[in-house]
Amino acid sequence: MGTRTMSTPTLGALTVPGSMKSSMKISQEVGSLEGLVEDAPPFNAENPLAKREYIKVGNNEHFQIIPSIVHYGGYDIGCVHRQTVKVKNITDKSRRLHILVPKTPFFKVFCEKKGVIAPGMSEDVRIEFVPTEWRYYYDCIRIHSEVENLLIPIHAYPVMNDVLFPVRLDFGKCATDTKYSKTVKLECKVPIQFEFDIAAMDPSMADTVWMEPSSGIVPADGALEIKVYFLPTRLVTYSVQFLVNIAQFNADPLTCTVTGSGFPSKKLDAELGTLAADCKGTERCGVAGKTMAEL
Q: Which domain of life is it from (predicted)?
């Protein structure tokens, strides 16, 4: 019986399937294109609501922002400073809103994201601010609603607003039943707008001494004119103290005292003179013969 001899095939004798040949050819072609084809950038999905317009500050037909502008006046580097903003539903129906958070890393927003807010209820938005250096910071929260969108500006700065307002205002002697007015300015010397409100310490004097407007917003690097009115009704000296509150972090209210004296008017003098002439004597009328102080 003969012996069968088996030959060992060499590498050149191996048969490569067609599919493998195609794969090798493609890999060689791809390798030759390295450096010529740029990788596609990663997909970044932007919120379509961010492209809407956000200009209105304060309130719209559905919501009221309290406070409408957030101020961090004075801060400590590396510390967390917190404030809360209320977005209140001022209608008689449940309303939907979307909150777009600040873009910078210095401000973070936390809220329950109710989505739908019942009438009279509010969404509490807590803002945390962590400064890294002494400078001015700005960002905003955008509120998307079914009507006009709202903007909540956020300001942070290392110094307090330099607010100028008179400490004392004197009208002097003024005729009774006559309205007098003076104009003062609420000024701000820093590039930041801020809210204010003015309240009398004695509300019973609201018809005698008052200021208009009693609340509002002072423009950045600007001034707002405020009218102070005085309408004396009696022959006495009036003194009313007002508190001017500034909507900024850790600010003390400003104090302004308004004074003035009621004095007999020419009209009153003429009426008293006519009355005295008609009476023809002190016994018939208890007016003639008396001094103005006694009247």
A: Eukaryota
Between vectors from CA 261 to CA 260 and to CA 265, what angle results, nearest 5°? Answer: 125
Q: Which CATH superfamily does the domain covering 163-263 fall into?
A: Immunoglobulins (2.60.40.10)
CATH of domain 50-157: 2.60.40.10
Predicted TM-score (pTM) of the model is 0.47
Give yes or no for residue 211 having a pLDDT over 70.
yes
Per-residue pLDDT tens over the stretch 222-239: 888 999 999 999 989 999
Q: Where in the chain is the domain with CATH 2.60.40.10?
A: 50-157, 163-263
The model's confidence at residue 139, banded by pLDDT at 50, 70 and 90, is very high
